[in-house]
Every structure is written in structure tokens, then in C-alpha cells.
Design goal:
The protein is of the alpha/beta class and 221 residues long. The chain has a single domain, classed as Aldolase class I (TIM Barrel), CATH 3.20.20. The protein is built from 8 helices and 8 strands. The longest helix has 13 residues. Keywords: Cytoplasm, Gluconeogenesis, Glycolysis, Isomerase.
Length: 221
């Protein structure tokens, strides 16, 4: 049984050389990975195969940063769930930066589940949970108060995070993994990791540095 999920969302940041350099830098930390924790890397679409190759030598898993709303067809420029499922066990959908309507995220969720990809569903408003939640998903609360912008972290009092997480748990069952996103970094991870009702974190800018990301993982180990 998986204890925690630690997800690295690289967004539109890493080029090919950056990705190779990250893999080289992170390879020395692979020995710290625990089978109890699921470590998931979400690179940009072109570099999914690079991380997939690393995953074959380790316990890392790969996620797509998004999937198409369309299942298949003449959708130029789109990438469907059926196209990434050989590489990706997970897909991040509904990320706050994309500002998608709930019905769009729900449609992507169902496509992922149909293709046997576990959707990591991002949300900022707990009121949307009733529509977004479904068995077999991971919910990722992106705290709108302290989502980082351009690598600038916005600190949040951990006690306030606990209050809202507890409210979220009243809506979704304890069996549904709930992870936290919002300026997760090496300075606040110890506090976030102690929040009982959380099952891990969604890490943005801090995951671009392999050592920093490894430090975040070791906090959970």
C-alpha cells in the first residue's frame, strides 16, 4: 500500500539538456527512494520518454502534465490519454494555471480512468469536490493563498492549511489520496509532512533542482 505521493510538476521549464542534467543529478538519490512512497515526475510531453527510461531502472513513476479533452481523432496539437498510457501511470488534470471549467476536468478525469491512467485532479475550491471526486483518483488541493508565481514562494501558516484540509476530508473519504500543492519547498516541507490528513505533496518550482526534490522525498522517508 502506498503511504505518500510526492509529485514533481515541471510545467514548461525544462528543455532536453535540462532534463538530461536533472536525470544525472537525481540518479545519485535513487537509493533513497522507498517502496512505501510513490515518486511521480511530470515532465513536458517531449521528455516523457526520457523520464520513462529512468523509471524502468528505479521506482519512479511518470505523469503527463495534461491530456486532451478529446479521446482520439483529427485534433491537431493535442495529446490523448491513449497515446501516453504506455509511458504514464498518472496524469495531472485541472491545474489552476489552466483555469478550466469543472465540467472539462470531469471529462478528462473519465477519459483517464477509461484508459487506466490515475488522474491527479487539482482543485482550489473545496466546493467543487463533489463533482470532481470519483473512486480511483488522487485529489490535489492547490491552496490559492500560497501558490507560487515565477518561483516566488508565498508562505502560509501551516495551522490554516490544517483547518482547510480537515474540511476537505469531511467531503471526501479517508480512502481517497489527498495531496497538497502551493509553494511546497525545502523550508516548509517538514511542517506540511506532519499534517495527518494529507497523503503527500505536489511540488512545482522546487522540483526543478534534483537535490532539493530529493530532500523533500527524504522528509517523508
Amino acid at each position: 500500500m502506498i503511504n505518500k505521493y510526492i509529485v514533481a510538476n515541471w510545467k514548461e521549464n525544462m528543455g532536453f539538456e535540462d532534463t538530461i542534467s536533472w536525470v544525472d543529478g537525481f540518479s545519485g538519490f535513487l537509493k533513497f527512494l522507498s517502496p512505501e512512497n510513490e515518486i511521480i515526475i511530470a515532465p513536458s510531453f517531449p521528455f516523457i520518454p526520457v523520464i520513462y527510461e529512468l523509471s524502468k531502472k528505479s521506482m519512479l513513476k511518470v505523469a503527463a502534465q495534461d491530456i486532451s479533452l478529446k479521446e482520439k481523432g483529427a485534433n491537431t496539437g493535442e495529446t490523448g490519454a491513449f497515446q501516453v498510457k504506455e509511458f504514464c501511470k498518472y496524469a495531472i488534470i485541472g491545474h489552476s494555471e489552466r483555469k478550466e471549467e469543472v465540467n472539462v476536468v470531469v471529462a478528462k478525469r473519465d477519459i483517464c480512468l477509461k484508459e487506466k491512467i490515475t488522474p491527479i485532479i487539482c482543485f482550489t475550491n473545496p466546493e467543487d469536490l463533489v463533482r470532481l471526486h470519483k473512486e480511483g483518483v488522487i485529489m490535489a488541493w492547490e491552496n490559492p493563498v500560497n501558490i507560487s508565481k515565477n518561483g516566488v514562494y508565498n508562505a502560509e501558516d501551516p495551522s490554516k492549511i490544517v483547518l482547510i484540509v480537515n474540511e476537505i476530508r469531511k467531503i471526501i473519504s479517508s480512502n481517497t489520496p489527498l495531496i497538497y500543492g502551493g509553494s511546497v519547498n525545502e523550508n516548509n516541507i517538514e511542517h506540511i509532512a506532519k499534517i495527518t490528513n494529507l497523503n503527500g505533496v505536489l511540488v512545482g518550482n522546487a522540483s526543478l533542482d534534483p537535490k532539493t526534490f530529493a530532500d523533500i522525498i527524504r522528509t517523508y522517508n
